[in-house]
Amino acid sequence: MFSARILRIDAPRLADEAARALREQVLGTLRRRGAVVGVSGGIDSSVVAALCARALGPERVLALSMPERDSSGDALRLGTLLAGQLGIRHVVGLDAAQVERVYRDIEAERRVSRCLHQPPLLVSESRGS
Asked: Domain with 90 in it: what CATH number?
C-alpha cells in the first residue's frame, strides 16, 4: 500500500544529484559547452532550465522561445521572466545557424572577460514584446 511517507523526499539532495548528473553528461560525456533549453513558460521547461543553470552555470545556458501562432500570449512573457530570474540568456525564434552564432558570441565574451579578469557578460535578449 502507498502511504504519505512515499511523498517525503529530500528535494535539495535530489536537485544536487540531478545537477551533478547533468553536468557530467553535458560537459563530460557529450563534450558540449552548455545547453539550449526550449522554454514555453510551463513548469517542465522551467525546471529543466533551472537545473541546467544550477548544473552548468547561467552563462552556459540559452533559453529559446519558439512561439507559434497558436501559442498562449503568456508563453513568451513567462519564458522571458524565467530567463531573467535565472540570469540566463533568452532568445526568440532562432534557426540552427543563429543559435551557433549566439554560442560563438558567448565564447568571444568569455575570452574577452578572461583577458580583463572580469566575470562573463550576461545578456538577455528578447524580441516581440
From this structure: 3.40.50.620
